[in-house]
Fold each of these.
Amino acid sequence: MTYSKRFDGRKFDEVRELEAKVGIIKRAAGSAMFRMGKTVAIAAVYGPRELFPSFLQDPKKGKLKCIYDLLSFSVTERKRPGPSRRSTEISMVTVDALEPVLDLSKFAYTGIDIYVYITQADAGTRTAGINAASLALADAGIPMKDLISSVAVGKISDKICVDLTKEEEDHPEGATDLPVAMGTRTGQVTLLQMDGNMSQEEIKEALKMAKKACEGIKEVQVKALKDKYKEALK
Ligand code: UDP
């Protein structure tokens, strides 16, 4: 059996409805919300500020740190509160996805903290979190070479799809999930993970879809940043 029609009626290369807003947490240096369908991520950036523990301080560059958490009420099944192997992994890949567009040599001795919280989860939380964190860094005025845009592509049965929902990830015929993050201006891919199996040809096709989707995501991110300044000028 093939997956001929998506559960939510989207085209195979169509992302879910997107929504973005920056400046949602007034006390933070920068903050943002990014929604992809029913997946909602909020991100807050604090710093550059004094880095603790102090042995981590580097005279050559600042340290980017991230705490990602999928909040217990974000999912319908029981989820134990607090850190897990999964949240540690996603915190790490979020830093790896964002660091290449930052010049941390400008922030010697200091730390930049990114907090990513998932308030509603329907798959793709690491990608929504990266989109929110990238916007929060920009909102904090941290110089960036590019915004990072992120989406998961994958294979359901024999069909390559973009931005999978949880229902799609749990398809009875199996699904492959391939989260991608990239700077669409530089073309640099900063996150590439895969859970499942795909042939080289399928990966190439999926990456093409991811690039197109990330270009659309970037437009939404840029608009959110511009909207904040439009409001400020009113
Ligand atoms: N999920 C869940 N409970 C958990 C972890 C994950 O219900 O403890 C769900 C959630 O909807 C998440 C999805 O499983 O978005 C897929 O999780 P995965 O680890 O693949 O990462 P993600 O796709 O969220 O980046």
Amino acid sequence: MAEISALQAARAQYQPKLPKALQGPVVAVEGKATESVGNQKEIKELFPNTYGMPVITFEAGNQPKLEPFNVGIILSGGQAPGGHNVISGLFDGVKSLNPNNKLYGFILGPGGLVDHKYMEITPELMDQYRNTGGFDIIGSGRTKLEEVDQFEKGIQILRELGIKALVIIGGDDSNTNACVLAEYYAAKKYGVQVIGCPKTIDGDLKNEQIETSFGFDTACKTYSELIGNIQRDCNSARKYWHFIKLMGRSASHIALECALQCQPNICLISEEVEAKAMSLDDVVTYIAKAVADRAEEGNNFGTVLIPEGIIEFIPAIKKLIAQLNDILATPEAQNLGRSEQIDFVKAHLTKDNLAVFNSLPTSVARQLALDRDPHGNVQVSLIETEKLLSTMVAAKLDQWKKEGKYVGKFGTQHHFFGYEGRCAAPSNYDADYCYSLGYNASRLIANGKTGYMSVIKNTTKPAAEWIAGGVPITMMMNLEKRNGKMKPVIRKALVELDGAPFKYFASKRAEWAKQTAYVYPGPIQYWGPSEVCDQTTKTLQLEQA
Ligand code: FBP
């Protein structure tokens, strides 16, 4: 066995908490028939076997005796703290139904199902990963499961291994694919159930039924510790403006939560930039003004939090990306080499979009025009927005200086926090939440459900009061344009500008910009007073208040 740290050894002994209802046998209580959040007619036609199913809540009851069965699990997409606990919860849940049940992990994401790469998760293996961060027990990947050929290859191995149900742990795109797979296997009467689990540090897989995606809590606490440390340094040396880009491909939930925890001088919120139709110059002016205002008071230092997806929310750039996506989806574009693709793209852009394209620094323009992930998303984590913005702010301040305005000194440091937080050891919240999600998935399987996502609600209360159940994935769907075509997808939850977390931030930000009101959250604690160890995110607290 690999050598482990003293903390990891102690943490391995932690027994995650379960909702009371899951602590014994359960019955599934069914609610009313459901509708999708949008495009009801189209989604119903696309998912005739899995549309309209009721929301399920588990209550204490009698679990009928089941024959032994096997389950498969897949980790899909970006890492998020707590993934191993979803697996341990599922493992323990499946074994509690019958000790002869087996759990198989497909290796390196959905590709493992298609390529028949798998391993059995034994009790010894499982014990090495309890309460640890990372997805390394079986690895993750971004292969998109959407072709009939992939589904058919999948059923071959599922049958060979006697797998009755497959659990897919993923974000909005991966759970959309889970639903498509559930529908296909139901339509073909293959007898294999598919269950999803809400994962993503981005926090954008949430809705009325899902309070939060797992990993958001730990990732935000990890970034907030780092931001707090930077703020102490910043307030000690008083000579730098720190530009800190934070992960979160589209939504700004991570940036907002870190702002609520750390009280930086500035935090940009992409959704607000879009709503106010701000240009890149407007964003730069907003930051430069705060820098100049602080300089007036002799404070030539500060912190700026930047959500990584911001570039896509600037309306002119958003329009450009939408056209780039359509152009890149054409067969002609796909057959070209990278440099030819840029010329092709430029030749097909409208005049307005071409002007925006040409106004961007070459590296940013290339990034927007070329690399997409397998789901067709721009890879915003590769765009150095923190440097782009600080360079533009410096230029704006120089211009104001020439016009006679006092702007002080502007020294900068740049940071990007993303990968630092995705594999952190799960906080108590994520450890318990994830274990419960996995355990709960075993109960959805035992109750014969397919096309459902495992959900745990009421999580601002003590774990015993958490509510366990399932939500039909079709309920969260609408049609959106992807890779040039309208596709059924789970609707992404962006920051709501009339929601409590943003409203609280908006009420405080002017004060935080001017004064130095930093908060230093410190590292995640696993043992100690409950108010230190067991707090949920500020976002969730404000949303549930
Ligand atoms: P998921 O949506 O798959 O959970 O991933 C989210 C994320 O961590 C984003 O925050 C980030 O933009 C992206 O993954 C980075 O992807 P990669 O790991 O492929 O570099």
